[in-house]
Structures are given as C-alpha cells and as structure tokens.
Design brief:
single chain, 189 residues, Peptide Deformylase, two-stranded parallel sheet, 3 helices
Amino acid sequence: MLPITAYGHPTLRKKGENIDKDYPGLEKLIEDMFETMYESKGVGLAAPQVNRSVRLFIVDATPFEEEYPEAKDFKHIFINAQILREEGEAWEFEEGCLSVPGINEFVSRKPVIYMSYYDEKFNFHEEERFEGIRARIMQHEYDHTDGILFVDRLPSFKKLLLKRKLSDISVGKHKATYKMIYPKKKLKH
C-alpha cells in the first residue's frame, strides 16, 4: 500500500504532467494505486494523492451500486484525461477525500461530463460521456490532476469553518486508518 499525501502537501497543488506508455513502472503504479484505494476504503484515487505529479487516476464506483445502479462494475483507469465539457443542472453530493481524512462536505457539480482519455493499454477514448455518480467520482479525481481539492469548491464561509481541521490534517492530527505523507515542517530559527 502506498502512503497518501495529506492536505497541505505541495504535490496536491501541482498540475499533473501528461505521461506516455513508457512512464517508468506504470503498470505497477496502477496496481499499487488500486490496492491503496481498496485498503483505505476509497472509490477513486489520483496519482498526486500518492505523491506522483502526473495525470493518472483510477475509479471503482462499485460501493455505490445499491443506490446508483450505473455504478455496478464501473472500474476504470484514466490517463491524460481532459474534461471537454460538463452539462446539466448542478447537484450537491457529500464528498470526502483520502487526502483530507475526517472531512465530508456537500459539493455542487454538473451531472454529465464528456471526457477524452487514454486507458491502461493507451487506447484513446474520444469524447466519452459519463453521468451521475460515475461522473461525480471522475470529476473529483480529475480535479486532483489539476491541483484542485474538493474543499477548494466549498463556499468561503465553509472553508473558514474548516481552517483548523485542515491545519490539523496537514500536521498529522487526525484519525486516518492508513499511512500518510505530510508536508515538511518549516524549522524555526
């Protein structure tokens, strides 16, 4: 299992770089990301969350299949993904994040996305349509590859209320059940 980068870690704020099929250890990285995601009880995981600043994320929406039938057997790998457009009336859904343990908040997102991406065999998928809970998970993970966290999408007053909790996460004062990487602390002279 790979350690998860915690809120405040600089890798989470970098825009990920595109990769090609010769990216070193890609197959192993994907395998390790799935293991990490499952062990930490996630439904998605982006490479920046395991301290790799590249445009790669994985999803497995299966835990939502009872409430959202479209989630059944939706396990996918996205490389160099680009959201081309979003459609529909935005809807709120409570999101959480492995990099921000213990905080769940309602985030508003569009219900339909069109995306281009490469799969794990580097087959190109052009303007593929996704909707509902699948699109929601993908938007959340896609944001990670752009250096955006779900808490960035919250209203200002909510961010203000969460400031202390976020600060605590960045220094390891939380109850994550998995290993995390924290930002390096600045030494005081």
